[in-house]
TrEMBL record:
CDD domains in alphabetical order: NrdH (cd02976)
Organism name: Salipiger profundus
Function text: Electron transport system for the ribonucleotide reductase system NrdEF.
Listed name of the protein: Glutaredoxin-like protein NrdH
One Gene Ontology biological process: cell redox homeostasis
Family as reported in the entry's similarity comment: Belongs to the glutaredoxin family.
Listed InterPro entries: GlrX_NrdH, Glutaredoxin, Grx-like_ET, Thioredoxin-like_sf
Lineage: Bacteria, Pseudomonadati, Pseudomonadota, Alphaproteobacteria, Rhodobacterales
Keyword Oxidoreductase found: yes
UniProt keyword list: Disulfide bond, Electron transport, Oxidoreductase, Redox-active center, Transport
NCBIfam families per UniProt: GlrX_NrdH
Keyword Disulfide bond annotated: yes
Domain Glutaredoxin positions: 3-61
GO molecular function: electron transfer activity; oxidoreductase activity
């Protein structure tokens, strides 16, 4: 399953999310929403207005969600 984290610079929840994924040994792609307009449109199309947004297979969520991360690994 591919995991993508859409983040913004200086985002505490984004850092917490990527650290939690790394701690579990889960590979992920990191996309900076401030540098990728198409990614920003996609995230907003999913209905999200905050970072990070994590897309893991069919699942997606916003914010630091250790409960969701624990289900990935």
């Amino acid at each position: 399953m591919s995991v993508t984290v859409y983040s913004k610079p200086a985002c505490v929840q984004c850092t917490a999310t990527t650290r939690a994924l790394e701690a579990r040994g889960i590979d992920f792609d990191l996309i900076d929403l401030t540098e990728d307009a198409q990614a920003m449109e996609m995230v907003q199309g999913l209905g999200y207005r905050q970072a990070p947004v994590v897309v893991a297979g069919e699942a997606h969520w916003a914010g630091f969600r250790p409960d969701m991360i624990s289900q990935l690994g």
